[in-house]
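[Discussion] Sanity-checking designs against the backbone

I'm trying to build intuition for which residues belong where. Below is a structure token string of 448 positions. I'd appreciate it if someone posts a full sequence so I can compare it with mine line by line.
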């Protein structure tokens, strides 16, 4: 038999680093298998990518498309992390303006496949006209995408039977097996985009595995009537790629962590885009204080409109560290003094925590899938969700402190700590994930 064809695959993520980085990791994995990659983004985002390993550099071409000028969008804003949430809709308008440049690129380079994100509702007909196969890569688990229903009715036509906010707090009627997957936020503005991509793609690729959610993966394929392939969890490959030992930031952080007891520190981080209101920030800070546990808090504020409570830093000095710029998260999660992760439940962060075997304290903030993810991993007993008031979604310093102490030190929390360590075996098994990636790449070779 002849050797399978070497492919040219283009990847085109949405302009958020929570999307760009998983797409970039997938690109490297495909390149490792000998295929040529065109990784498409904007100039500033391309500059901010991690360095490509030297052995893969000849196979990965970084393609810059310039965003058009859009009213209300700052000139240098090319990713969601450059903006407040109120300005992100203007980034989507600019992103839609990339249709022309992308069409020119696809016409001249003729890739075998383009792997796209949720936002490019206009890409399926373009790919079809050019006879380029199209894969939708969901950086979220199948449970999140299943929540939206079928692409043709609920997403594109707006025929979702759920009309009241409370309808979104119960399990959707199309999920035929017991599940706690529900949400507390009706603000789904991107369903038409993702529905159009799901309807027009040739295959759905999901950052997941059957061992984590076989039923949801099967359901997702059934809802959309096409192959649904788990491609693995894309666990971190190499700590050294994120930060060198000599890096001043890491050395300073490590010096503080080295002084703490083994497994005693709560690492607190809510990503670069989660926006806490002043009351939320107050309750979180006072909860960290009330817990009496050591903590390392990465506080990335979008603007200066929110401030820590008066005297907070003085009162927690020595026990708590507040850090306001970039950190090497993987290295912190892997440090022996860190025993738990207080997170907004972003999927990438949860994967990194369980890769390190850390139990979770979960506080979903403002993006719809975070609530679903918190419920899924709460159901798997690897962490707890901070209790909120059902009527207004608020939480208190007491619920923050209670959740932290349960996961970190109380006897009842042993189950969560043990289950997180057990799940590490799944998340950190490179050979296991490689098998999923091999299967996905074989599908691309055989089905384009």
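Best answer:
Here's mine. Compare freely.
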């Amino acid at each position: 038999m002849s050797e399978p064809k070497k492919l040219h695959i283009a990847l085109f993520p949405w302009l958020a680093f929570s999307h760009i980085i998983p797409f970039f990791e997938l690109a490297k994995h495909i390149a490792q298998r000998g295929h040529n990659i065109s990784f498409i983004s904007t100039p500033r985002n391309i500059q901010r990518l991690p360095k490509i390993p030297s052995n893969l550099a000849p196979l990965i071409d970084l393609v810059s498309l310039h965003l058009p000028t859009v009213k209300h969008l700052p000139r240098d804003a090319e990713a969601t992390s450059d903006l407040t949430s109120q300005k992100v809709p203007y980034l989507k308008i600019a992103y839609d303006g990339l249709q022309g440049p992308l069409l020119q690129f696809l016409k001249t380079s003729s890739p075998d496949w383009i792997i796209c994100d949720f936002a490019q509702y206009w890409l399926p007909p373009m790919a079809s006209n050019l006879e380029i196969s199209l894969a939708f890569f969901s950086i979220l688990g199948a449970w999140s995408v299943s929540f939206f229903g079928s692409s043709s009715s609920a997403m594109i036509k707006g025929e979702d039977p759920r009309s009241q906010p409370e309808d979104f707090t119960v399990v959707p009627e199309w999920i035929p097996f017991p599940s706690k997957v529900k949400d507390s936020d009706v603000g789904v503005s991107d369903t038409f985009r993702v529905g159009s991509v799901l309807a027009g793609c040739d295959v759905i690729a999901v950052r997941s595995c059957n061992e984590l959610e076989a039923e949801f993966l099967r359901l997702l394929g059934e809802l959309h009537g096409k192959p649904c392939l788990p491609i693995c969890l894309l666990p971190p490959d190499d700590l050294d790629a994120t930060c060198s030992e000599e890096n001043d930031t890491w050395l300073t952080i490590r010096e503080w962590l080295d002084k703490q007891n083994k497994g005693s520190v709560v690492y607190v981080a809510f990503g670069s885009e989660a926006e806490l209101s002043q009351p939320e920030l107050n309750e979180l800070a006072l909860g960290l204080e009330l817990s009496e546990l050591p903590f390392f808090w990465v506080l990335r504020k979008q603007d200066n409109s929110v401030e820590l409570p008066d005297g907070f830093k003085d009162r927690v000095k020595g026990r708590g560290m507040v850090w306001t710029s970039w950190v090497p998260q993987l290295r912190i999660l892997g440090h022996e003094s860190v025993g738990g992760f207080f997170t907004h439940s972003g999927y990438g962060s949860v994967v990194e925590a369980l890769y390190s075997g850390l139990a979770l304290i979960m506080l979903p903030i403002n993006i719809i899938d975070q609530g679903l993810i918190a419920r899924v991993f709460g159901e798997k007993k690897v962490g707890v969700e901070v209790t909120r008031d059902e009527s207004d979604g608020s939480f208190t310093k007491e619920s923050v402190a209670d959740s932290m102490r349960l996961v970190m030190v109380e006897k009842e929390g042993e189950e969560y700590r043990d289950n997180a360590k057990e799940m590490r075996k799944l998340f950190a098994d490179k050979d296991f994930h490689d098998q999923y990636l091999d299967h996905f790449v074989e599908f691309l070779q055989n089905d384009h």
